């Protein structure tokens, strides 16, 4: 990790931008913002600032822009591609204190600060019988601002969509400190360019999101879930593409390979899932039709050689999901001293899901790596996690080779290099292949909205001659 | 209507850009592209070109850009805000011949040319049991390119979303003739800036859409519909906001005021709807739970003083919607010699729906105008149609005054100046009020992507000092 000196001197202007006590130069504080949840190398910022209001965010950005000092927005720090690492030093701007929540149940929307944590929002909404629904794994850490930044999604996107599909309005501060309302608190509009949608997924490189209005859905009255095992990953993944192709709209449909199940069983003392390729299927409804849908889902699974169907009791469904949410920790603790080299994240057209699952399996064998796979399969989204001995550089290199091979295959299949984790540092090198000419347009938009390049430099858009 | 001369001389380069027979300079042809479906004043283009391929579109744009000649893309011409009128003359580029359809049923998507007509696509998709679902009124004319241009939607958006929510990938040609793929054929991605979403709703001012991949949904197995009458518009609109707020997700929920019903009855010999404020509620499901939902919808209507509930036989549902789709024609023929001054289109947060309905009613009375209202009420979207004697300038002016008053009220209520018709010429003057600082950003993006300003000039973005 690089270190900085003279930070206080250079960034002293921050005291004028925010209230007392909202800037820190101490190494002990700066170190907390040097790394995110990804395996990417950290970098110490020169200062950390946590504004109390949108106006303070604007004052920080305006002053930093005048001085051409990099500003990296920080939400929950749960990013898996180095999205929030201050790659060029400068200022980390955390939105943690922008944490107000205002719910309009009649409009099915909530207006929340960028620093509100996903699970906290849903806990707050429960009293109204409502939910913000993308269903992300890291919901205990990730904030609304970060979810907008990466267009995050997760378990429930197959029914309810990505973060993008829920955002009605954003309040954003530009690089030069202008406060901009992007969109209106309505469910639809065709009033010009959707800046809101341009900002979503831009990872703080075009502006800093300070407030979000998100649409909500009702908590489903009925939920049914089942753990379904198959003889092979291929059978399981074909069952998924068949279910989606038949226009079934599950609440979630999650794929877990044999190795993932083994890791979950090892991590949880009280868990004993069958060690087989598994789908966790959940259905949502507000009426009794759910039983008919469940029977239909089972029929599809039977068509693909289903070996077992274990219906979950309604009161156990959340526990099963919590077990799945612990997958990352189950993986890291599976072999003492070994670490997760990276968390792969690709998405393909659903009919190609069996192919991308096979590619991970083949690459793991070819490269002699312990790789486990899970995925929000209904969206064609697959995660894969090679475990490595961090002291074995050659093994770490093989893990990255696996990632490159799988991403290339996903792109070849018409897919995308990242389904929900964003580009950050880790996926920049694939952007030229994924976007082609579109990347030139993205670059020109970046130059237009952030001409001095102060916003989260080193992220999303690769340098003009690709790395 | 203004006329042009020397068109052939100025635009002769077009023969080099497209195949023989794909350019026209004859006044008889140009006149067909001088006006769209809106009441806005037409303008003759200098030439009309209909490219046979994306490459021809690129050749036309590249050559026009070199010569700084305006190009106005033309889709179905069904725009209601002058969206496709060649306001600065120059070239009209029609995408009508980009009409290929390729369906991938397993991926639940279709890749279609910009010139494909909405109803034709859905007819084609029916063999697969699938639908492209926004449900627009002018589906017999509107094309996919035009729907992307205005982010169109309609009856079924309340359940399935606007065009934006369905588009997975766009092929777009930039002002200077570059062919750009925006997005991938996947249901979700977080790979950088969503150019796709920036283009959607930009009405051909940032690029010309040539091909679209749209997501599809299954044709629902079960449909139920009912015509429900209420003692007042307020009761009807409160029932809508209550239904949506209770997280019911109807397939459609359409509001029609007393005057609209009167017009429909007069237009259709075989129709005899009760002349009362009416909701047309439709439910969709793939299981028997639909009856439970229907009973719940009826309960909500009863809570708001429902006077009658007439269930439609399943085989009649499409006929009822067809009657509703004829509303525009029913309005224009209601009083011989009178015309529709404009088709209003605003959207508000759903809890404010009763207020905006009331505003139209009050303004109609205050201004002594015959105004009928319909609306995709579940989205908070309201259309209003003042009828005027076109020779009575003062009356026409009153109709525009009504529109300004209603749009201002919608904005005051946190709504948007246009729900689904786009900005075109007619709504430009409201953009400064709706967007504030965001408009400056839109302008800078326009300047970046179309530096010579050749793409559909005079639309969407108002001149720097507002009209």
Automatic annotation (TrEMBL), chains A, B:
* Alphabetized InterPro entries for the sequence: FAD-bd_oxidored_4_C, FAD-bd_PCMH, FAD-bd_PCMH-like_sf, FAD-bd_PCMH_sub2, FAD-linked_Oxase-like_C, Oxid_FAD_bind_N, Vanillyl_alc_oxidase_C-sub2
Superkingdom field: Archaea
Q: Which SUPFAM superfamilies match?
A: FAD-binding/transporter-associated domain-like, FAD-linked oxidases, C-terminal domain
Has keyword Transferase?
A: no
Name the EC number(s). Answer: 1.1.2.4
Family classification: Belongs to the FAD-binding oxidoreductase/transferase type 4 family.
Protein name per Swiss-Prot or TrEMBL: D-lactate dehydrogenase (cytochrome)
Organism source for this protein? Natronorubrum daqingense
